[in-house]
């Protein structure tokens, strides 16, 4: 069923506490934790507890939870005292998505060039 945990999904395992992560914020619908391979001084992933493969399927099925990710990105940015930051949803392998459980990257704490590579 849509949104149910997937046995082979790394981020479902983090949500379930089966794989450790440095969690910085949690809500009823979301978990935010530090990326294991940070690309900036602050690099936090914000994910829905429910399993959807990417932001497009999450946004179509559960727009409220997609909005929760954006609110939480702003909350984490505030806690990290970031004046400037970027929120990114890599969608599809051609855009660099490697984990197919929807997630926002929150990046900050250094200059971020635009346009990105
Ligand atoms: P994507 O490439 O799918 O947009 O982002 C996946 C992110 O998950 C990558 O930035 C990668 O470093 C991070 N990641 C992969 N495995 C783990 C893990 O086991 N723990 C944590 N905290 N991050 C992970
Ligand atoms: Zn999952």
Automatic annotation (TrEMBL):
Source organism per UniProt: Streptomyces bluensis
Motif Histidine triad motif location, chain numbering: 101-105
Protein name as annotated: Histidine triad nucleotide-binding protein
Domain HIT: 10-117
InterPro entries noted in UniProt: Histidine_triad_HIT, HIT-like, HIT-like_sf
PROSITE patterns: HIT_2
PANTHER family: HISTIDINE TRIAD HIT PROTEIN (PTHR23089)
Gene3D superfamilies: HIT-like
Domain of life: Bacteria
